[in-house]
Amino acid sequence: MSPTEPSRGLNRRHFLRHAGGLAAFGALAAACGGNTGRPSGGGGGGDGDGVALSQWYHQYGEAGTKEAALRYAKAYTKAGVNVQWTPGDYASKLSSGLLSDKGPDVFESQLNIAMVQSKQVVALDDIIEDVKDDLNPNDLAQNTVDGKVYGIKMIDDPQLIYYRKSLLDKAGIEPPTTIDDLIEASKALTTKTMKGMFVGNDGGLALGGPALWSSGGSYLTDDEKPNFAGPRALQAYAKLHELNASKSILLGAPTDWTDPGAFLNELVAMQWIGLWAMPAILKKFGDDVGVLAFPKLDAQGKDSVYSGGWTQFVSAKSRDVEAAKAFVRWLWIDKTDFQEDWNLSYGFHIPPRKSLAAKATKLQSGAAADAVKLAADHGFTDNPAWTPKMGTAFGDMLTNIIKKGADPAKEADKAQKTAQAELDRLFG
Questions:
Q1: How many Å apart are CA 129 and CA 114, to the nearest integer?
Q2: Do 22 and 150 reside in the same domain of the chain?
Q3: Which of 216, 355, 363, 389 has the most crowded Cβ, counting Cβ within 10 A?
């Protein structure tokens, strides 16, 4: 569903990864829609043996999502499930809730190793054991710490560049294959009434992660060392500044990059946005739409597709952990019809179950199929050892480079020191 964040910046789909960590979010925001304690089953299904579960969601932007979540909960007959739908500062509410016995039994978030170390979540290996081979390997990796799986992915949201084929043809240019091509294409597509590209009102912080991967780097190495400050990564960050300074990107749009409004209203020829926007874009432009991975830095680089999304967890402070796990198993493993509905009826998302993704007919043709293939061929996702504090340092680095033209080497060195200090704290 349309979000949080640059790939490493602050937007709805990934806000939790960058706003300070579940154990370190700010004060609890005012709760919206229902009490914040454990309910007596209101809004849920049958109450089984008197078990009452609280399931927390942030507010999705797509129409029908809240109604769908309530419908799923009502269909569960082994416990009462109360859905808490939180507009606004979900992060603070969740942070506070996970520290008390008045929080959720089941909640959505993205895994951070601190959640495991502080015993906020429980391992779910036992409820996924018989379907583990059917789960997307990248999703499993991002939810695994010390060999144990702590979350079940609900949706996979690849982020891509959408473009109007006819406008590229009119300008006499091919779809970009390198970052330099992308900058030149954005310039060529800029007219008196249209900018070449929209990458967010912050000038492109969402592109930091994809640019890093396009250079051959990554946030961390396999043995958990910083891997985002090498010479090629610095080149990629400098290219983002070049794009921002080119006067070919849209700034000050009515909505940010997570909303397709700039593209739909023909303010730009290209836009960085997630798969969730595909139905609205296809409805407006049909076959005139193409999609691209973020292009490689150069011939030695690689195309990259960041895949975000949300994951379901069971709180270690649940009053009935086993009942909470049983509900999560039912909803996100057994109820494949609900999983298909959640992934394909409210914007497009790739189902995390390989078997469901393979038969998702809405994703099997045209630009949607191209997006799925790009995600499969070039996808990368979060590392649970990458903490919110690291994300904040990385975002500050990008802000200074992209918007202020600061020296990439100096900025990356500062961010790398923060990341190393965090790794030392986590792993000794």
A1: 24
A2: yes
A3: 363
